[in-house]
Amino acid sequence: RVLSGVLKLNQRVESLDLYNNNIGPDGVREIGEALKVNFTLKVLIVADNNMGTEGGQALVEALQVNGSIIECYVDENNHLVRECCRRNRENHERAMECVVHLLAIR
Question: What are the φ and ψ backbone dihedral angles of 26, each rounded to 5 degrees?
Answer without folding.
Answer: -65, -40
